[in-house]
Amino acid sequence: MQLKEITTKAEMLQQLPLIQQLYPEFTEQIYGDLLDEMLPNNYKQLVAFENEIAVGLSGFWVGTKLWCGKYLELDNVIVHPNHRSKGVGKLLTEYLNQKAIDLGCKVVALDAYTNNFPAHKFYFNHGFVPKGFHFVKFLEEN
C-alpha cells in the first residue's frame, strides 16, 4: 500500500470514483466546483493506492481555532467497500496523526455522520472521543 498527498485539482478529480462512494450524485463538474472553493483554503487529500489503484482517501485541513489551537481535521474519509477491513483506514489515520504531530497541532478532529456506527467504532478504536456536537442548520431544502 502506498500513500500519497495530493494538492492539485487535477489529481483530486482523478479520485472522483472514490468520492462517489460517499456522494454518488457528484459529477466531475460538481466536485470540481467544490474543489475550486476548497483548495485556496489549504485543502489537501491523502490517497491510499494498491497496485496504483486508489482504494481510500481522506481530505484534510490544518487550521487554528480558539478552543483547541492548531488542529488537523480529517474530512470525508472514504475506503472503497472492496477494501474495507484491510487496514486502509488505519493507514490513513496513522499517517495524518503523525502529520499533525509534525506540524505542531494540538488536536486531530473529524466529523462522522450520526448514523455511521461502523465509523464511530473505528474512530473510538483509534483514540478519538466525542468532544461535542456538530450542529448544522440547512438554509436550503435539497
What does this protein look like?
The protein has helices at residues 9-13, 16-22, 28-38, 88-102, 117-125; strands at residues 2-6, 44-50, 53-65, 69-79, 107-109. The protein has 142 residues and is an alpha+beta fold. The protein has a single domain (2-126), classed as Gcn5-related N-acetyltransferase (GNAT) (Aminopeptidase). It has a 5-stranded mixed β-sheet. Strand 4 (69-79), helix 4 and strand 5 (107-109) form a beta-alpha-beta unit. The radius of gyration is 15 Å and the shape is globular. The mean pLDDT is 95.
Give a quick precis of the structure:
This protein is an alpha+beta fold and 142 residues long. It is 33% helix and 27% strand.
Number of helices: 5
Radius of gyration: 15 Å
Main beta-sheet annotation? 5 strands, mixed
Under CATH at level 1, the class stands as Alpha Beta
Structural domain count? 1
**The CATH homology group name:** Gcn5-related N-acetyltransferase (GNAT)
Fraction of helical residues: 25-40%
* Average pLDDT, all residues: 95
N-to-C terminal Cα separation, in Å?
Answer: 38 Å
Topology, number of strands: 5
Oligomer: single chain
What is the beta-strand fraction?
25-35%
Order of strands across the biggest sheet?
Answer: 1-2-3-4-5
**Runs with pLDDT <50, length 5+?**
none
CATH topology: Aminopeptidase
CATH architecture: 3-Layer(aba) Sandwich
- Using the alpha-carbon principal axes, give the shape: globular
What's the order of the H and E elements?
A: EHHHEEEHEH
Structural class computed from helices and strand pairing = alpha+beta
